[in-house]
Write a structure and sequence with these properties.
Blueprint lengths: L4 E9 L3 H19 L2 E6 L3 H8 L5 H9 L2 E6 L14 H11 L4 E7 L12 H4 L4 E7 L11 E4 L5 E4 L6 H16 L4 E6 L5 H14 L6 E6 H10 L6 E4 L1 H12 L11 E3 L12 E2 L18 H13 L4 H16 L2 E2 L9 E2 L2 H10 L3
Parallel strand pairs: 1-2, 1-3, 3-12, 5-10, 8-9, 8-10, 13-14
Antiparallel strand pairs: 4-5, 4-11, 6-7, 11-12
Helix pairs in contact: 1-10, 1-11, 1-12, 2-4, 6-7, 8-9, 10-11, 11-12
The structure holds 3-isopropylmalic acid and magnesium ion.
Magnesium ion binds next to helix 9.
């Protein structure tokens, strides 16, 4: 039987995006060789790099390649040189356009502390010692990121006014809640839902709809936290969480905060999934490390490729149905860390500090 061939559109983007994406491709190729399938990678400009080359952060060529792909592997976008551009030309506009185009409403951000990295976390052992293993399920195509009205206007008296709108319909809340509860069923059966129901109507509706959906999942425990309190509890009792369900904005904040539990944001992958399916009938996912473009260390082989590599594992699992290969990548990452290999962001005395490419090569060598 011919080996299945999957099409992956690579969008390396800006800053450290290209080097970490290259690391992920190295590891994915090793996984494909070991597990009997083929990957066809194509690279396309996005973000600031695309703006420089083509005058737009999301060129037609890139959009067409994404349309045709089984999954999209993304690096990072952004940089200080683009900060002054109007919104539609900014690198981040490409990211939001992709999320919206494929209706990628569910952003999954696993927060996993690898035991050998306990000392890399700024939190005390008594807080994280019992383990940290939860997943943030962030709504990604609604809320204040997309709500109307939005904009900056100048009133008649010359006052300038900036407006964004937090808005959610019951259907938007219900589908992300269902995703969260379904994921919880495959884990420890607990959902912590985050809102500001004490001040925001959109938050009150969020809580009501989450409770309605919870009735479909009587075997899953549900807890509600106000967002400010959630920010505190993440640092106080991180081991208590299993699935954390949040709106677009709160999920954005809480995932950066939670990243620090694990030692470095350079370790955290994410998968964005929606209703769109690929040729296999699986979600046409978008896979993006949580870290940004880190322009200060770009192009110097200093970045941690593990977030991008773990994105590769999520891609294998969710978009290609290659669970064995996904587990092999995750095991290889765990082994490399157990054996004491580190990048600069997670180094502690007595460990071997590797560059981006060498770290990816160590992971690739341990697959199969
Ligand atoms: C993220 C990022 C993006 C977001 C930015 C780059 C637009 O912070 O994916 O967490 O706010 O969603
Ligand atoms: Mg963010």
């Amino acid at each position: 039987m011919a080996r299945p061939t999957y099409r992956i559109a690579c969008l390396p983007g800006d800053g450290i995006g290209p080097e970490v994406t290259r690391g992920a491709v190295t590891v994915l190729e090793a996984a494909a060789a070991a597990y009997g399938f083929a990957l066809e990678f194509s690279a396309h400009p996005v973000g600031g790099a695309a703006y420089d080359a083509a005058g737009t952060p999301f060129p037609d060529e890139t959009r067409e390649a994404c349309d045709a792909a089984d999954a999209i592997l993304f690096g990072a976008v952004g940089g200080p040189q683009y900060d002054g551009l109007p919104w539609e030309h900014r690198p981040e506009a490409a990211l939001l356009a992709i999320r919206k185009r494929y209706d990628l409403y569910a952003n999954l951000r696993p927060i996993l502390l690898y035991p050998p990295l306990r000392d890399a976390s700024p939190l005390k052992n008594e807080i994280i010692g019992g383990g940290v293993d939860f997943i943030i399920v962030r709504e990604l195509v609604g809320g204040i990121y997309f709500g109307e009205p939005r904009g900056i206007t100048t009133l008649e008296d010359g006052t300038r006014r900036g407006v964004n709108t937090e808005v959610y319909t019951d259907a938007e809340i219900a589908r992300i809640a269902r995703m969260g509860f379904t994921i919880a069923r495959g884990r420890r059966r607990k959902v912590t839902s985050v809102d500001k129901a004490n001040v925001m109507e959109a938050g009150r509706l969020w809580r009501t709809v989450v409770d309605e959906v919870a009735r479909e999942f009587p075997d899953v425990e549900v807890e509600h936290l106000l967002a400010d309190n959630a920010a505190m509890q993440i640092l106080r009792r991180p081991g208590d969480f299993d699935v954390m369900l949040a709106s677009n904005l709160f999920g954005d904040f809480l995932s950066d905060e939670a990243a620090m539990l694990t030692g470095s944001i350079g370790l955290l992958p994410s998968a964005s999934l929606g209703a769109a399916q690929n040729r296999l009938g699986l979600p046409k996912g978008f896979y993006e490390p949580i870290h940004g473009s880190a322009p200060d260390i770009a192009g110097r082989d200093l970045a941690n490729p593990l977030a991008a590599i773990l994105c590769g594992a999520m891609l294998l699992r969710h978009s290609l149905g290659q669970e064995e290969a996904a587990l092999a990548v995750e095991r290889a990452v765990a082994r490399v860390l157990e054996e004491g290999f580190r990048t600069g962001d997670i180094k502690v005395p007595g460990t071997a500090v590797l560059g981006t490419a060498a770290m990816a090569a160590e992971v690739a060598r341990r697959i199969g």
